[in-house]
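Data availability (excerpt). The following record was deposited with the supplementary files.
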Amino acid sequence: MANFVFPDAILVKNYISGDESALTSLIERHQSKIYGFIYSKVNDRDLSDDIFQDTFIKVINTLKTKSYNEEGKFLPWVMRIAHNLVVDHYRKSNKMPFNRETEEYSIFNYMSDNAPTIESKMITEQVEADLSRLLDQLPEDQKEVLIMRMYQDLSFKEIADLTGVSINTALGRMRYAVLNLRKIIEKNQIILTN
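Predicted structure:
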């Protein structure tokens, strides 16, 4: 079990609960992506080091004050903090990088609107309704484990503790939930696309 990799959400919860090593794991897991992103924007090692450090000071302060909102995922949240600190740096130094429009660079790369469209909201709601109907066909114990694992991002140990069963029973229920879902999907000839 030593090789088990905890999801970011669990590491965040563990850190908020006082486990300092959880933050170390999060930093080590995402360091190259975050640092690479910062360096690609400022092209300076010392400055990148400073902004990387400031990013995690903000992360720590937010987590310590328990104002972290878990709606988003951890990495995109940290990337937004890093991006804002890069922008702040350029604002303070009045040196916003000027780039001419080229194939590699476009101002539209920075102006993405991630707000869901009405159409995508309707599709998401329909998919969620369909999935909810599928889940309702599962036995209650299997449905409970599947929801805790997939939607609440809980480990099997946490699921076992919360449901009062052994880890093996929780794993078994998850396995049967997946097998039963496959049968339901095949029986109803549902086509799943990703």
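Summary of structural features: The mean pLDDT is 80.
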